[in-house]
Design goal:
globular, 12 helices, binds flavin-adenine dinucleotide, alpha/beta, 5-stranded parallel β-sheet, 2 domains, 489 residues, FAD/NAD(P)-binding domain
Length: 489
């Protein structure tokens, strides 16, 4: 009987563990498979970065119930944890509370149906899933009634190349090219950047975070400089929504990056699509399409987004959007080419489903290459998928979440838009026509949340706005045209 097997969740990150808590609350057996040694193994890797979400937005409701029963209390709502603190104060206790439902050190290497490859129709849905894992004890095959793949995208950062492929010479220069936000509290990393020139490639929150950190280093170490390399023709809204961002810390990040540029610690290069990386006497020269070469730099940090690893899902019948690699029903809601701030609404089992009944992508991975993923979104996905698997279809369809918007209408910013049009792509300007999107306008980016004093933040190119509310003040449908999607990094 398929129903006798557990639901297998891939990944013990924030969303995988939330899914386990939601399934447990509904009385369904669950097994979480995590390749790392700890809960939140991916978050640990960016543990030095402070989140722009407050504690109250970082704890899944079912997880909180489970934890509260153990005597756990949520840290102060208004605080902004670092990634490390999120892991230590929430994800680790949650994994402990889930106990044997979570296995560490096991990597999922394949998912299929028992005795059926992706081609075979006959009896397909009556067969359990087979989940192939590799760990210290060797290979194993587990059976599952359903699979929730919450394995994130952290393991597959996008390359430097402006066309999405590694730039020529990129792979040979890995010693000087990183795809992570530098942790300047680490002495070795600090030495790599202090008094030197670093190219920061990418336009999202991770790039902004890197610029802010490098600018702080420059205050103490003369000669430290960042070169901010953007594909878009102008900076445009790359500094984010500022005071109009409903996540104040996220809005403030852009303002800090702007200040770093104004202070002269950051040189901005726009309209540059990296095609090649050439070694140059121990330094690197970035060469753009068309042959334009930048001044040599000592290091390059590519914060150009992430992409989903679909390699272990080859035997599953996925329904993925050809652009974003996100589930087909979800993709139009999150496509940075077309959606304006405030148009991504919470979603669940229906939007996450695939032709393969019982298989779901959830969390960061469900967004494919789209930006703007928030843990809150993932928690709502987890709740809905758990309800669906428990047979509560009314509960699965119900939306129980309100998401904050970025204050950047047109979300993704500009590609090669001329200066004169810059204003028109902004929040409150006249927006060029293209794709019609419903928006429920609540003041949005034209409203005015004060930028509070917040810690230096985080995040990636990818996330922008998941929100229930519109960008401009009217509630009429908006039409926006975007050129270059932001990328997570
Ligand atoms: C720098 C940075 C700052 C961020 N700040 C915020 C913020 O302020 N607010 C916010 O809401 N979100 C923020 N995010 C987004 C954040 O990443 C997500 O909200 C959250 O981590 C997504 O959780 P997840 O469980 O989907 O994926 P992940 O956290 O990536 O977890 C996936 C897990 O799956 C495991 N895994 C991967 N492949 C396999 C496999 N084959 N087999 C078994 N296990 C596997 C990984 O080891 C990992 O533990 C930030 C992201 C970054 C990178």
């Amino acid at each position: 009987m398929v129903a006798n097997h557990p639901v297998v969740v891939i990944g013990a990150g924030p969303v995988g563990l939330a899914a386990a808590a939601e399934l447990t609350e509904r009385g369904l057996p669950v097994l979480v498979l995590e390749r790392g040694a700890t809960a939140g193994a991916a978050v640990v890797e960016w543990g030095h970065v402070r989140l722009f979400s407050m504690w109250r937005d970082l704890v899944d409701p079912a997880a909180e119930k489970l934890l509260t029963a153990t005597g756990w209390r949520r840290p102060g709502d208004e605080g902004y944890p670092t990634g490390r603190e999120w892991v230590d104060s929430y994800l680790t206790p949650l994994a402990d509370a889930l106990g044997e439902r979570v296995r560490f050190g096991v990597e999922v290497t394949g998912v299929s149906r028992l005795g059926r490859d992706r081609v075979v129709d006959a009896g397909r849905e009556e067969q359990p899933f087979t989940v192939r894992v590799r760990g210290d004890a060797g290979e194993e095959r587990l059976l599952a009634r359903a699979v929730v793949d919450a394995s994130g995208t952290w393991g597959s950062p996008s390359p430097l190349g402006g066309d999405g492929l590694p730039a020529l010479g990129e792979e040979a220069a890995t010693e000087r090219i990183s795809h992570r936000i530098p942790d300047l509290s680490d002495e070795g990393t600090r030495i790599r950047h202090a008094g030197r020139v670093t190219a920061v490639v990418g336009s999202g929150h991770s790039a902004l975070t890197a610029l802010v950190s490098l600018a702080a280093l420059a205050e103490e170490n003369p000669g430290t400089k960042a070169v901010w390399v953007l594909r878009r023709g102008q900076v445009g809204d790359a500094f984010g929504g500022g005071a109009d961002d409903q996540l104040a810390a996220r809005g403030a990040l852009g303002q800090r990056a702007k200040a770093a540029v104004e202070a002269g610690h950051v040189e901005v290069v726009t309209g540059f699509r990296t095609a090649e990386v050439r070694p140059d006497a121990g330094r690197l020269v970035l060469v753009g399409e068309g042959g334009r070469a930048l001044e040599p730099v000592d290091e390059a940090v590519a914060l150009t987004g992430f992409r989903p690893d679909l390699s272990f899902l080859s035997e599953v019948r996925l329904g993925l959007d050809s652009t974003l690699q996100a589930p087909v029903e979800l993709a139009p809601l999150i496509d940075p080419n077309v959606h304006s701030c405030g148009t991504v609404y919470p979603h669940g089992a229906k939007e996450l489903s695939h032709p393969e009944e019982g298989f779901f992508l959830a969390g960061m991975k469900s967004y494919g290459r789209a930006p703007t993923f928030l843990a809150l979104t993932g928690y709502e996905q987890a709740r809905s998928v758990a309800a669906h698997l428990a047979g509560d279809h009314e509960g699965a369809a119900r939306v129980e979440l309100t998401l904050p918007e970025t204050g950047v209408c047109g979300g993704s910013g500009l590609f090669e838009e001329p200066e004169a049009e810059a204003g028109s792509a902004g929040c409150c300007g006249t927006v060029p026509e293209a794709v019609e999107e419903p928006a429920t306008g609540q003041g949005g980016c034209c409203g005015g949340l004060a930028v509070s004093e917040v810690p230096v933040l985080s995040l990636d190119d990818n996330r922008t706005a998941s929100s229930e509310s519109g960008c401009c003040t009217d509630a009429s449908p908006q039409k926006t045209e975007l050129a270059e999607p932001n990328r997570i990094s």
